[in-house]
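Chapter review: from sequence to fold.
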Amino acid sequence: MSVKSEYVLEDTDEIGEASIDLEG
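The token string follows.
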């Protein structure tokens, strides 16, 4: 989760939040 969080933040904040929500 930690690694994905960083990648998502760098890639896209919006997509990152949605992805974490679905996975989290």
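Two observations follow directly from the output. The chain has a mean pLDDT of 58. The longest helix spans residues 13-23.
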